[in-house]
Input
Amino acid sequence: MSPREIRSYRTQAIILGHIEYGEADRILKVFTFKKGKITAIAKGVRRIRSRKAGHLEPFTRATLLLAKGRNMDIVTQAETVDNYPGLREDLQRIGYASYVVEVLDRFTYEEGQNIAIFRLLANTLKRLETHPNPVTVIHYYELRLLDLVGFRPQLFECVDCGKPIQAEDQFFSPLAGGVACPHCGKARPEAWPIGVDTLRYFRHLQRSNWEQVEGIVIPEAIEPVLADLIQRYVSYILERKLNTPNFIREIQRNNNNGEI
Output
């Protein structure tokens, strides 16, 4: 292997976002198949004649050739694998994709290869592009990601007494990381009430594979409650609020008011 080959590598990557740098460059945050999340620089990409620019937009899956740099790797070639055009044509789906990327970015570090997370991200963007019920896609993604980063909530046994959860209203403790029975939950001031129907969908989404949940349409009375509970749990773990849920809610309000 030549010294040139040692200093460069090729990998699939999904573009999470970028910031402008200097007069013509961009610093990219990407999640790669080979090295997990990394920061890289695309030099000259903002110039009109750049051939890489269209391949390095957020939510694009691309094959990158990167050269190892002193502070960050350098993108020398880029070729689109999938830019999810159906996703980009729908502002609400763009909002969901932004949420997917924000949650992933908050939970992950530049700590090496994680093929499971890469595949989850790629599959989620493809599902968001085509699936008629994007909220089902989002909740399945949230629970799979929580599994992969070590924060799987306990939904089948009480986090305090260990007894099986019964078909009745319960409590959810973000501190303990799961459901507390009515008796134990009342002793936890940080716990939130969770209705039996909301918990039923929560549990089904957690224990099932995609083929078992892709046909689910979460009832309108349950969906906002479930979404709020999961987002509150995620924010509790991260110790910060997420930015994209407000953006999604604003889009939904505009759609309901007939605005374009």
Notes: Strands lie at 8-21, 25-32, 36-42, 61-67, 73-82, 170-173, 178-180, 192-194. Residues 20 and 171 are 45 Å apart (CA to CA). The two ends are 56 Å apart (CA to CA). The chain has a mean pLDDT of 93.
